[in-house]
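dumping this here before i forget
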Amino acid sequence: MENSTLYFYFNLTSFMDIGHYRYPAFVFCFLLYSFILSANFATILIIIRESTLHEPMYIFIAFLSANSLYGSTGFFPRFLMDLLSDSHLMSRPACFTQIYVIYTYTFYELTFLSIMAYDRYVAVCHPLHYHRKMSPKTVYTLAFFAWVCPACYLTVSIVLVARLPLCGNNIQKVYCASWNIVKLSCVTNAVNNIIATLGAIIIAFLPFGFILYTYLRIVVACWKKSSEVRGKVLQSCFPHVISFVVYSITSFSDTALNRQNLDETKPAVSILLSTEFLFIPPVLNPVVYGLKLPEIRRHVVQILCLKHKT
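structure:
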């Protein structure tokens, strides 16, 4: 506690290792961010304007795309500026704001994937009661809690982290992260650790378990049905399964990296593993849903053909 200091800036040290690769990295990341914005915005626009897509599954896809816009905007603009800058200091308010945006993005992704899994479970296992169980009121109630619960938890969690006394300000990442700031703390706070652990179990592991359970029930329900029915179920569930697997792998990579000694890891590898959850799902989701779901694919083709004729 005697050596603790109230730091007004944090230094993102991973940028120091990029060197001359910053310029091609900037071009690549700028194009990547542009694609994320255009693809996800187009998905949302198509779902809003087409009345045939005003169904629970497509509404949740629109929410997932909106979350991709939210999370990528919380990361890319600052990241692109830092790529071309020689100084990588981030103010304390900006750092905790970025933490809030990035962490809520990750939890929103998981909560909406959980709701989408429940939607597919009801559609496959209780088709006669689907419209009653997934009424507009139910859809928006689920969406409300999917937005509010992670936001409330992370507000409390980040406030606790912000109150920690710090003995340093170097963050070994290209963005601000809560765990890296906790490691800078001069003290070990048991209350913070307990709250963080319980929060991680409730917010992360329970949804993971719920998604796996719903798909186990879907597999059992489809086991004795005809191949045609199984094909239709696979077509509607496959995009969600891909999104869930990609999210699981990318988020686990960042979590595993936090437990490693970054000094022994190649800079490029550590940067890739720590950021892939911020760009792979936002890039992949609109592509997968656009190509695999016939309703969205049909409207995309119609728009492209219309533009080609004009």
